[in-house]
Write a structure and sequence with these properties.
The structure holds 2 protein chains of 2 kinds.
Chain A: E1 4-7, H1 17-27, E2 38-42, E3 47-51, H2 60-64, E4 70-72, E5 79-81, H3 91-95, E6 101-104, E7 109-112, H4 122-126, E8 132-135, H5 139-154
Antiparallel strand pairs in A: 1-8, 2-3, 4-5, 6-7
Chain B: E1 8-13, E2 18-23, H1 26-32, H2 35-46, E3 60-64, E4 78-83, E5 90-95, H3 99-105, E6 110-114, E7 121-126, E8 129-134, H4 143-153, E9 159-162, H5 165-168, E10 176-178, E11 182-184, H6 189-195, E12 198-204, H7 214-230, H8 232-241, H9 246-252, H10 274-280, E13 282-286, E14 296-302, E15 307-311, H11 315-320, H12 330-343, H13 347-362, H14 368-371, H15 380-392, H16 397-400, H17 404-410, E16 419-420, E17 423-424, H18 434-442, H19 455-460, H20 474-491, H21 503-514, H22 520-540, H23 552-556, H24 571-582, E18 584-585, E19 588-589, H25 591-596
Parallel strand pairs in B: 1-6, 7-12
Antiparallel strand pairs in B: 1-2, 3-4, 3-6, 4-5, 7-8, 9-10, 9-12, 10-11, 13-14, 14-15, 16-17, 18-19
Classes of the chains: A alpha+beta, B alpha+beta.
């Protein structure tokens, strides 16, 4: 069964712990600028929005790669860059409409979220409010549906 | 790779407009950690304690700690250390947000600012490069306007720490605001910045912070998070209501200084409580970088009279602009809080100064001719007006900008200033919480709650419950809390995490990050060393032990109301014990003590 990082923006506190955790795990240092997950703080609107690669079913980056260095594992759903094949041409960077794959100077390769491969995603492990969850089902969405349904229910009179 | 520190100091000389990088003194880093401790070591080594705080000889140091920019214990903090124009003591003001981490990611542990620019400038830092830019067009702008303008012209993702009009006009309690709503608030660090014609420090940092032992650091951080998520203060109280959770608690304890400390309870406390704020203007909770607590309050003001948005007010502000002034109009308090952020003023001293002015007015020591308007307790409009006048430097606001002590002194009644060493109390009455009275009297930056927060054991029962009326043993607690705080402030950790974690956990994070092998006892000794170093600077600055005292009201006038009616502070008893515990002879660190701490 495929799992994904589910994001519930209403629980976010804008602490960027996800960015710190990601860069520490994958780059060996705390460097949010190199994080694969992005936590944007919009103070004026009081909104904190977190975005990361959603492991597309039909990935633009994969289709664009001239070297066949990007693969989607059909079992786990994870879209991975094979660093042995990647030549650092940045075609994928242009192709991704979400800006979720980038070129890293220090490796000379493309870099993107791989859900921490076989491990539990580090950003989810360090999210203090459970704004990020790692799940098979679309649980946060289910919660939203239920909240809406309950509101409907509360508005009903006696039958 | 690195080990928490970068080993780099950026030295900015405003007089000759030079920016140079020098190696961090690692011997000092080992003895003073970073942040508050390390910056204090640099300041006291480079600045004569007797200098005029507004002279070009004074320096200002922005200091991160070895843990700033990492995760675990809300490590998004930095310190501003300088000589205070409010107190004449060493000043060190802490702030969180995104700016502190950005500074660290730009590659510097400390930024030492010296000299004085001829005309307004701001400092631009982009990773390893730093330069001074003209700030003529920014002078006069509010803090939010300044940040927006700098982002537009320098870098869209830049983080900014700046002063507002109050810092420019040398209001003695002007603060330095970063990320628009976070402030290195107390002791007038923003006025020192203004005196140097430095409007802002803008940073873009895309580098990182490395730790010595990544696996050990990760494990320590995981455990820290778990502890913070389990402790009721850091997982329930602060997230639910922010620091404002304290309004009702402290009022019920009879320790909420009301109408310039004339009472210990406020009959309208409920109207300015965290609970009320949550029902009205609170939009959502917010954390600083790396935070798990999220005590920050994002608020929106929707009121027929005022509009605006920002962060806060915090507990201390709800008290200072509220109960201290007898004001229960929450919208007016939130609005005045925004004004303080915009103009760049410390809300604690601002509100306390308004409260002091109100008492001076009611006693006839100030008249309409002085103030230009009636100033009575409970008058929310007058409170807002005076905050605005102070920020703009208009009329009576110029005198209010001196702080309550200088204002009361000019009226011939300095005893009506609720301050120690000319810095106003925060929101706890020293008669109702004996340990806090001792803490105010011995804090190295004048009255302060974040140098040794004895409210935690005396009221909240963390880590254990102490009787707030008791005197015995408070000296030992005061020293322990002051030393722990000095360590926390130096590491780059948020003080609020210490509700849930103690020194052992801070030491564990520190050792894993730096590769050091300090024991808890060694860390506590560093706290003692920092505290004593600050004390020695203050003594050289001419702040003698006779100033380790409290206003006459707290020492002699019994609390007229509340559960602790009749109480006065028993400071003298606690103070002599405190000096003994510290190894200070009549308030002066002995030669043996100084030597044992390596400060000789």
């Amino acid at each position: 069964m495929q799992k994904l990082i589910r994001i519930e923006p209403s629980k976010c506190i804008g602490c960027k712990s996800c960015e710190m955790a990601c860069s520490f795990r994958h780059r060996g240092e705390f460097a949010p600028s190199k994080s694969r997950i992005i936590n944007e703080v919009f103070m004026e609107e009081a909104q904190f929005i977190t975005v990361t690669c959603m492991q597309c079913n039909d990935p633009w980056c994969m289709k664009a790669c001239p070297k066949g260095a990007i693969e989607k594992d059909m079992a786990s759903g994870i879209v991975t860059v094979d660093e042995m094949k990647c030549v650092g041409c940045r075609t994928c960077v242009s192709a991704c409409p979400f800006g979720m794959i980038r070129y890293l100077d220090e490796t000379g390769k493309a870099d993107k979220c791989n859900l921490c491969g076989p491990d539990f995603p580090e950003c989810v492990a360090f999210c203090p409010t459970h704004c990020l969850q790692y799940s098979e089902e679309d649980l946060p969405l289910r919660e939203k549906v239920l909240r809406f349904a309950r509101t409907m229910k509360d508005g009903q009179g006696e039958v | 790779m690195g080990n928490g520190w970068h080993g780099k100091v950026l030295r900015v000389n405003l007089t000759d407009k030079s920016c140079t990088v020098e190696p961090l003194n690692m011997e000092w880093a080992a003895a003073f950690i970073g942040g508050r401790g390390l910056a204090s070591k640099y300041l006291t080594s480079e600045v004569d304690a007797t200098v005029d705080p507004f002279s070009s000889e004074n320096k200002m140091i922005l200091a991160t700690g070895p843990l700033t920019g990492t995760y675990g214990a809300a490590n998004g903090r930095y310190m501003v250390v300088t000589k205070s124009p409010l107190t004449g003591t060493i000043a060190c003001s802490n702030s969180g947000g995104y700016f502190p981490c950005e500074l660290k990611y730009a590659g510097y542990d400390l930024v030492i600012i010296e000299g004085k620019a001829e005309s307004p400038v701001y400092l631009k830092i982009k990773n390893g490069e730093a330069e001074l830019a003209d700030a003529g067009h920014l002078w006069g702008k509010t803090t939010a306007e300044t940040e927006d303008a700098i982002r537009a012209e320098f870098h869209g993702d830049a983080k900014v720490a700046c002063i507002g009009p109050a810092g420019e006009s040398l209001v003695r309690y002007a603060c330095i605001v970063n990320d628009k709503h976070r402030a290195a608030g107390r002791s007038g660090v923003g006025a020192v910045m203004g005196s140097k014609n430095l409007k802002a420090v803008a940073v873009r940092g895309t580098g990182g912070v490395a730790t010595a032992d990544n696996a050990a650091f990760r494990a320590a951080a995981r455990d820290t998070l778990k502890m913070l998520r389990q402790h009721p203060v850091t997982s329930e109280g602060l997230p639910a209501l922010g620091t404002a959770v304290l309004v009702n608690i402290i009022n019920q304890s009879g320790a909420l200084p009301t109408r310039n400390s004339q009472c210990g309870t406020f009959d309208k406390a409920e109207e300015i409580s965290g609970e009320r704020l949550a029902q009205t203007f609170l939009k959502r909770n917010k954390g600083c970088m790396g935070c798990v607590i999220a005590c920050g309050r994002v608020t929106r003001l929707a009121d027929p009279r005022f509009s605006g948005a920002g962060e806060g007010p915090e507990y201390e502000t709800l008290w200072s602009l509220g109960a201290a002034c007898g004001v229960s109009d929450l919208a007016a308090i939130v609005h005045a809080n925004y004004l303080c952020d915009e103009y760049g003023m410390d809300t604690i001293t601002m509100g306390s100064t308004v409260a002091c002015a109100m008492e001076l007015y009611e006693r006839g020591l100030l008249g309409d001719a002085d103030t230009g308007m009636p100033l009575k307790f409970g008058d929310a409009d007058a409170m807002v007006r005076l905050v605005e006048m102070t920020g703009k430097g208009e009329g009576f606001g110029v005198r209010a900008g001196l702080g309550s002590y200088r204002l009361a002194e000019s009226c011939g009644a300095p005893e009506l200033s609720m301050s120690v060493k000319k810095q106003e109390f925060p929101a706890y009455d020293g008669r109702a919480i004996q340990g806090m009275g001792l803490e105010y009297a011995t804090s190295n930056r004048g009255a302060c709650h974040v140098r040794g927060y004895l409210v935690s054991p005396e009221i909240l029962g963390v880590p254990e419950k102490l009787d707030p009326e008791a005197v015995a043993g408070k000296a030992v607690w005061a020293k322990a809390f002051q030393d722990v705080t000095a360590v926390v402030d130096s590491a780059g950790v948020c003080l609020f995490t210490t509700f849930g974690i103690g020194i052992p956990q801070v030491t564990r994070l520190f050792n894993a990050a730096t590769g050091f092998g300090y024991s808890d006892e060694q860390m506590m000794e560093i706290g003692d060393r920092i505290y004593t170093l600050e004390r020695l600077f203050n003594l050289k600055a001419g702040i003698d032990p006779s100033q380790d005292t409290l206003p006459k009201r707290i020492l002699e006038e019994p609390l007229p109301d509340g559960p602790l009616k009749g109480a006065v502070s028993h400071l003298p008893e606690m103070l002599s014990e405190y000096y003994d515990v510290r190894g200070w002879e009549k308030g002066i660190p002995t030669a043996a003590k100084v030597k044992s701490l390596g400060l000789a």
